Amino acid sequence: MAEKISHIKRMEISEESIQERNLDEITQSISENKEAVLKGIDLLETLNQSGTLDTLNAFVKHREDALENIVKEVNKPQYTAILENLPRLIMLIGELNVTGMEQFAGKLNHGVKEAAVSKVSEKTSYLDLIKALKDPEINRSITMLLQFLRGMGKE
Q1: With bands split at pLDDT 50, 70 and 90, how would you rate the model's confidence at 11?
Q2: Dihedral angle of Cα 79, 83, 85, 90, to the nearest 10 degrees
Q3: CA dist., res. 99 & res. 55, Å (int)
Q4: DSSP for 28-72, written as a single string
Q5: Are 53 and 47 in contact (CB under 8 A)?
Q6: How many CB atoms lie within 10 A of CB 149?
Q7: What is the pTM of this model?
Q8: How far is the C-alpha of 17 from the C-alpha of 23, rounded, in Å?
Q9: Using CA atoms, how far apart are residues 148 and 130, in angstroms rounded to an integer?
C-alpha cells in the first residue's frame, strides 16, 4: 500500500525568471506588431508636439470636473434646439446623395469663380438673354437649373 502524501513541495519560480519571460513576451509582441507600434509612437509624438497630449492627460486626470463642466455647458437653453435636432440631422445626412451634391457643388464653385473674375458693368437686355441661350454652356446651366426647380417642385 502506498504512503499518504503529507507534504507538497510547490515549484517556485524566481522573480528574475518571471521578469525574463515577461520581457520575452513583450519583445516578441513588439516584433510581430512593429508597424503598429511605430505608428503609435508617431501618433504620440504628433499629439505631444501639438499640445493635445497635455490636454488629454489633464482631461483624464480631472475627468469628473471636466465632464461636469461639459454637462453644465450643454445643459444651457441656447443648446436645447441643437440637441433636439441632432438625431434628425443625422438621419437627413444619411438620406443625402453625396455624389450628386459633390458634382453640383463643383459646378457651383466654378460658376462663382467665373462670376468673380468677370467685370460686367453694362445691363443685359431681353435680346441679350435670348442670344445667350445659343451659348452651349449657358444653355446647359439653365437646363440644369430648370431640372433642379422641376424636381424640387414635385410632390
Answers
A1: confident
A2: 130
A3: 37
A4: HHHHHTHHHHHHHHHHHHHHHHHTHHHHHHHHHHTHHHHHHHHHH
A5: yes
A6: 9
A7: 0.40
A8: 10
A9: 21
By the 8 A CB rule, do 90 and 83 touch? no
Number of other CB atoms surrounding residue 24 within 10 Å = 10
> CB within 8 A of 29, min separation 6: which ones?
none
In the block, cell 453625396 appears at: 98
Q: Are 138 and 132 in contact (CB under 8 A)?
A: yes
Please report, for the chain, how many H helices and E strands are present, in that order. 8, 0
13-57 pLDDT, tens digit each: 888 999 999 999 999 999 999 999 999 999 999 999 999 999 999
Residues, the chain: 155
Distance CA 19, CA 21 (A): 5
Amino acid code (one letter) for 60 = V
**In sequence order, which residues have a C-beta less than 8 Å from that of residue 37 and are 6 or more positions away?**
30
